[in-house]
Amino acid sequence: MSYSLQMYCRMVLHRVGCHLLKKTHNALGPPIRRGGAVYSGACGFREEEIREKLQAFPGGSINLVKQESGIALMTINNPARMNAFTGTMMLELQDRVSQLEEWTEGKGLIVHGAAGTFCSGSDLNAVRAISNPQDGMKMCMFMQNVLTRLLRLPLISVALVEGRALGGGSELTTACDFRLMTEGSEIQFVHKHMGLVPGWGGAARLVRIVGSQNALKLLAGARKVDTDYGERIGLSDGTVTLQSAESTALGEAEKWVSAFTKGPAPVIRAVKKVVLSGRELPLEDALRTEKDVFGTVWGGPANLEALARKPKHK
Ligand SMILES: CC[C@@H](C(=O)O)C(=O)SCCNC(=O)CCNC(=O)[C@H](O)C(C)(C)COP(=O)(O)OP(=O)(O)OC[C@H]1O[C@@H](n2cnc3c(N)ncnc32)[C@H](O)[C@@H]1OP(=O)(O)O
């Protein structure tokens, strides 16, 4: 076959391949599918198996209030155990994330702990009972799925840290867009002291938040992060101080996040989506996602109303 015929055939095959790839990409939508889990049956993850095991460890709850303001409050509630995650709380966290994925008016989320402390990680009684490698890996995959979906919610999320955030509790803080800490609170990745590394996705997210050197210090040193150090390395986005005798840390956190959720829900949710794809996707995928999301707000009610107002951004 002559060279020019070879080149022609290669060009045709290349064009057909690109066309099929483009059709597949458009059909599947952007790589970050709503509620995109990391592990599925396709990679041997049998969720029903771990759900059954986690059911055997009851106690505590994950409470959720979806407010008129568009800001939801999620409470890690197991105060007798410093808000440690029992098995049923892990399952409830998955249910609450599913509810938030369906909340189309939502704009923000504050995750906090009951009784003035954040969360002391997995319930050690449950951990001891599923300490074999197989069950440990299944729990790890389950919690990675749930926390990845939490971070990917089209809501601006804040972890409000009061008291202590330890182990899995420190990992939970990294599954929010922002972290606010109260005076005297501490975030500590204690995993090394447990002979472990993070398993709920906390290491992967921590590197993206504070950089690999700081992540190494926090994990290899199991270093306590207080408000000053947290702000210095970028793990904390602010220290919550009570403005009056009546104010509460939760109220101050709501004021803080409200600065970013003011505006129509479709626009705020679109902002989170384009930042999320910029954070997670290769450039060209992120650009395509941005184009898709732009198309949902361009000429929409908020855009047309703003144009009619002849806005002046003082
Ligand atoms: C992927 C990581 C993940 C995993 O591997 O699955 C983990 O998160 S492993 C768990 C990591 N967390 C810990 O190791 C924290 C252990 N707890 C503590 O260090 C301390 O309790 C504290 C959180 C620093 C608080 O100390 P203190 O103020 O002195 O209170 P107490 O220690 O007396 O605690 C009160 C009460 O709560 C129970 N508790 C606390 N944390 C847990 C926990 N993670 N699991 C189960 N129970 C917990 C503690 O036992 C006390 O109960 P009583 O003994 O009945 O009084």
TrEMBL record:
The keyword Cytoplasm belongs to this UniProt entry's keyword annotation: yes
Record's subcellular location: Cytoplasm, Cytosol
Keyword field: Cytoplasm, Lyase
Reaction equation(s) it catalyzes: (2R)-ethylmalonyl-CoA + H(+) = butanoyl-CoA + CO2; (S)-methylmalonyl-CoA + H(+) = propanoyl-CoA + CO2; (2S)-ethylmalonyl-CoA + H(+) = butanoyl-CoA + CO2
GO molecular function list: methyl/ethyl malonyl-CoA decarboxylase activity
InterPro entries: ClpP/crotonase-like_dom_sf, Enoyl-CoA_hyd/isom_CS, Enoyl-CoA_hydra/iso
Documented EC number(s): 4.1.1.94
Any GO CC annotation of this UniProt entry: cytosol
Gene3D superfamilies in the cross-refs: 2-enoyl-CoA Hydratase, Chain A, domain 1 (3.90.226.10)
UniProt xrefs under Pfam families: ECH_1
UniProt-listed SUPFAM superfamilies: ClpP/crotonase
Residue ranges that the Swiss-Prot or TrEMBL entry lists as coiled coil: none
Protein family membership: Belongs to the enoyl-CoA hydratase/isomerase family.
Entry-linked PANTHER family: ENOYL-COA HYDRATASE-RELATED, ETHYLMALONYL-COA DECARBOXYLASE
Protein task: Decarboxylates ethylmalonyl-CoA, a potentially toxic metabolite, to form butyryl-CoA, suggesting it might be involved in metabolite proofreading. Acts preferentially on (S)-ethylmalonyl-CoA but also has some activity on the (R)-isomer. Also has methylmalonyl-CoA decarboxylase activity at lower level.
Record protein name field: Ethylmalonyl-CoA decarboxylase
